[in-house]
Amino acid sequence: xxxxxxxxxxxxxxxxxxxxxxxxxxxxxxxxxxxxxxxxxxxxxxxxxxxxxxxxxxxxxxxxxxxxxxxxxxxxxxxxxxxxxxxxxxxxxxxxxxxxxxxxxxxxxxxxxxxxxxxxxxxxxxxxxxxxxxxxxxxxxxxxxxxxxxxxxxxxxxxxxxxxxxxxxxxxxxxxxxxxxxxxxxxxxxxxxxxxxxxxxxxxxxxxxxxxxxxxxxxxxxxxxxxxxxxxxxxxxxxxxxxxxxxxxxxxxxxxxxxxxxxxxxxxxxxxxxxxxxxxxxxxxxxxxxxxxxxxxxxxxxxxxxxxxxxxxxxxxxxxxxxxxxxxxxxxxxxxxxxxxxxxxxxxxxxxxxxxxxxxxxxxxxxxxxxxxxxxxxxxxxxxxxxxxxxxxxxxxxxxxxxxxxxxxxxxxxxxxxxxxxxxxxxxxxxxxxxxxxxxxxxxxxxxxxxxxxxxxxx
Length: 459
Ligand code: SF4
Prior knowledge:
Bound molecules: iron/sulfur cluster
CATH architecture of the domain at 42-294: 3-Layer(aba) Sandwich
CATH topology of the domain at 42-294: Rossmann fold
Distance between the termini: 62 Å
Radius of gyration: 25 Å
CATH superfamily of the domain at 42-294: NagB/RpiA/CoA transferase-like
CATH class of the domain at 42-294: Alpha Beta
């Protein structure tokens, strides 16, 4: 089994000193930062909007049992089908069953992180079902055979030159193609895929309980084509995507757009209530919603970390995080990266192998500051650390160092006796290796605070 912690450290080491990567990210993030300032201007009272959204999500997460059942019963009344999948295996099995039964061989997909989580494309490929990503960013990373780099902008780590080079290698178009030329090329290519697709697979931005509907937003129109053209529409959604009422969208849609991309509203916003009804001229013959737990109930069991289920996947905390901005999305080695990924992944994939993500944070609190649903992410990271220690997922060395640290800190006289020079030596001895060769260890000052204080008050 791969040692995820070791792999994380190795990948991070490579990324942080990759100046080209850093330049690309800083450039793309700076454009995001500028856009968000504009997007947020639409709120006369942003703090109040966030508080309201947080309260709605909090209430919903605490009554998931009620709202999910409401959604199921309202959605099925209009001919939709709901499948409750406890884990990734059940979800994938059901999707393949639906596709096989309907003899579907060609699938178009719109961007959905949960389909990454359950590794759906790989499973479809094994079943000889063609699956094409239709979001431009997703299509680029699919071509590059990489996982998405970011939950909102999957190809954020690639410059326009990198993308032109990729298309040149795959399709032999000029390696100097502009972003507009590449977009037109993909647009034409995907049109044919939409027309011939047997089934469309989308995620859900929100599941609306009171009307039994799925809200899907996107900027390229590809999601609308994905669910409206093929005979079958399959929605894959985590159980936390539920909101109580259609009215709540007037709050969540602008919050998602402004914090996700800096827009007032995402360009295309659809509410899908089921398969094509009698006398309706378009829409799929069948519509299925695969509701996935896949350890979300493990998060729900945690009194504190449960708040993380309120996440609307806007990506703002990733963009704000100084750690993410330096190590990038792929270093995390998980579907969900950045602060929210570091909070939820240890529960989704196991504390033992992923607790290190909760330690990869400066706890500066910037993530909490920008979250549109007021999730106290930096505090949740601390609770995760505490949970990891309680569950004894720490190494012997970590335990020894912390015990030693605690004993010294409890005895002030030991610290005083050690003197500044010994402290410097101890820092070098214990932390130099983990600090890494690329950074200078902080220096211990010649005089301690206590000594300076004494001198100041005696003079
Ligand atoms: S935790 Fe908050 S800021 Fe981060 S992706 Fe979720 S909603 Fe956005």
